[in-house]
Amino acid sequence: MIPKNPLLFLAIALVFVAAFFSATEGNAQFRRASSSERIPERSENNAQDTVKVAPKGDIETTINYKAKDSIRYDAANQIMYLFGEAHIDYGEISLDAAFIEINWNTGILTATADQDSLGRLVQKPIFKNGAEMYESERIRYNYKSKKGIVTNTVTTQGEGFVHAQTVKRDSLGNIYGKTAKYTTCDLEHPHFYIKATKMKVIPNDRVVAGPFHMVFADVPLPIGLPFGFFPSPRKRGSGIIIPTFGETRLQGYYLRQGGFYWAMSDYMDMRITGDIYSLGGWGANVQSTYTKRYRYNGSFSLNYALNPAAENYQSRSLDETYLVRGPSSSNINISWSHVPVARPGKGQFSANVQASSAFYHQYNSIDPRLTLSNRFGSSISYGKSSTTSPFNYRISLRHSQGIENRTLRYKNKEGRDSLVYSPVQVMSFVLPDFSFGVASQSPIEWFGGTLTGRWIEGIRIGYNLSASQNVTNKISYRGNLGYPFPELARRDTVLSINGNNLAEIFDNGQRIINHDIPITLGTVSLFKYFKLTPGVSYNESWYTNKYTYRSEPGSDILKVDTTSGLHRVYQYSTSASLTTNLYGQANFKGKKIEAIRHTLTPNLSYSYRPDFGGSNFGYYQRVQSDSLGNTRLLSRFPPGGNLPGAGVSSAISFGIDNNVEMKVKTDSAGVFKKVSLIDRFAINGSYNMAADSFKLSNLSVDLSTRLFNSLPIQINATLDPYEYDGSRRINRYLFQRGGLNFARINNLNFSTRFEFSPKARQQQESADAPPPTNVPALQRTLTAADYVDFNIPWTLSAGFTSNFSRDLLTDRLMNQATSMDINGSVTLTDKWAFTYTTSYDFKNQALSYTNIAISRDLHCWQMSINWVPFGTMQMYSININAKSSLLRDLRIRRSDSAHGRAW
After folding, report:
1. For residue 687, which of 713, 716, 721, 712 has the smallest C-alpha distance?
2. Is the pLDDT of residue 33 over 90?
3. For residue 643, what are the contacts with CB-CB under 8 A and spacing of at least 6?
4. CATH fold of 1-113, please?
5. Which domain of life does the UniProt lineage start with (predicted)?
6. Which residues contact 174 (CB under 8 A, 6 or more apart)?
7. What is the pLDDT of residues 276-295, one digit of tens each?
8. E strand or H helix at 809, and its extent?
């Protein structure tokens, strides 16, 4: 159809004639114009030719097009031809091909590929409509009716790809394929696919096929299915979770982790699953993740398990029997993590909760870290601080739990005493823990003064308050205490936490309020090279219980009376420290070594604290300790708080730090670098002039260095300067014997770690974070292959630790623990990776937890083999599964462990 206005027709013809004879890429915007509009002339800078149109018409928006070779327009038939790397943009639609034909009369776009000299198809048509993408040999599309036919095409639907000989697209966007393939492999010839006679694709919703069968490596499976349903939503979708089938030694066959996934919204999801066992027992699990952009994110899980009872006793000898405690009739586990996003001046709520029944993880968890650990802790807190105010506060609730053994005696069959070790769960709570603080400020600021850097401005005063209530189900009954250690001879009972015992547990709790006033007096320079720092400290604690001791005449029994109320305990001290830096340097004229510098930092301080054990303070009570009339000093307050020690302290503390560096030449001319020979070598101690004996404290020695600039070494030792008569310490210095004996080693710790990799790892936000994925965290089960970096050829890390302490009976250093751990990875090829971790206990001559894992990248699939060869966590697992979350249930799994065999 030719426009009625001849001037408009002539202008359009001139535009396309100019484009046809252009030797470079042509760009234009074309829309059908009304008779009242005027076509602007082409600008000199070869800008796009543009025609403005009325808002109504067959063409709904601007069509942008270009071609590398040429553009030809048939004005009589209103057909445009684009040759060579042709491209069209029309709203959300884009089309790339070797050749494109546009018929303005019919509204049909036709795109085809080209052939190279070898007859291969190149520049295949690629059609994009929003998130959809089609790659084919030929495309015919009507932009008016929004229908099209595609030949030999590949279209992307979410994480999947649809291959079909012929594809039709209706006006609603639905796609119909004949002799189609559906796969998540992105290769032109996929490794596996679902082959169907007919297939319907509803974009961003689902793929329906049937009848179909699976094909692996071009080998079809003999069994097919009448129809298939494959969801491909753009957003997360709810659906059924297929359980895992397997077998355990104690619970028989099972179905685990089967249930329902609920995509509640874009910011929250929930996973509800259950477990069932053929020999009795079942489990229920609820997991959820949530997030709010720029505010917080978190996760929550609640797990319940009803386990059948295990055997109760296991004999190891005739005289000793160890209790193998089976799980309770029911076990529960709660986990909650809430992480806020830092916002200056705003309050922050955070939570990290991990609580469970005593044996939940030992009988239900497959995570070695949880199974081997018997201690967990939780914290929930809310706090606020401001950059414009010195005030801050925080209130928190804390919890800790662990397993302790109770030793019981009973008569065995032979009538001899035997021991039974019964594990019990001990839980402690801090409900609540409140803190309030005022940042240190100069008194000059209190009166509106201006700080100008004077030394007097170094005097600063702050304030900190903390109040807490500590409760535990491990109750210590204080009453009749025996000698010779009455403060330790108390009877402990572990109560079960239920409604009947809560009142007793809270009545035995400790409530303490601590006040601390930090005072700094600034730093004064003396004689230009010395720095003097005086200090004053004051703090006090308020207790709700106070003990009074009284002896029973004619017996070795001490009775304790408890007085409730608010009891104040305070203490104060003064101090002053003096320090300086000394430098020594030796210059060389060698080819590599330029100089060696030694930095010496001596420090000397004095502190004084009065005797808070005196009767005038009332913090301690002197009581009779035996029938001979000897006495002991006992604290009148429960543990915790800032209870000062008894006795006058007038101590001089001393120390010296050393650092040795070497300046060496590099390969570059005139460029030097520093190499640390000794990172730190320090000796510290103190001398209490007010003590009546043993005035000199033990000396601590710390050495840290790095051999060959890659092998760190840490050595810590405690030296005792006094003599011993057998196991009894004598108030006489060891050096008084003569010779070179100045002190003896009481404790010695040595550790080193070697880490090496030919390619340094990039820093990560979280060392345990899985690879990035757009799949919901609860919707996809990660395997070992997800955490393997195939780009690193190999890594190696080996650590060695050894601890020694002196045995007072033999007066010899005895090895307490010596172990070595090794872990690393080896990437055999760009597809195969091998990781390992193990440790060896030299003292017990046994291997600790050992794990070997092999991962194979199969392009669209992945394989992982995990093996723990021995120990309580002995297991193996073999997993082969599709990477895509859409086909995550398409897998092969074999495993056997302490918790069961899975298929």
Report:
1. 721
2. no
3. 541, 569, 619, 635, 637
4. lipopolysaccharide transport protein A fold (2.60.450)
5. Bacteria
6. 200, 201, 202, 203
7. 988 888 999 999 999 998 89
8. none
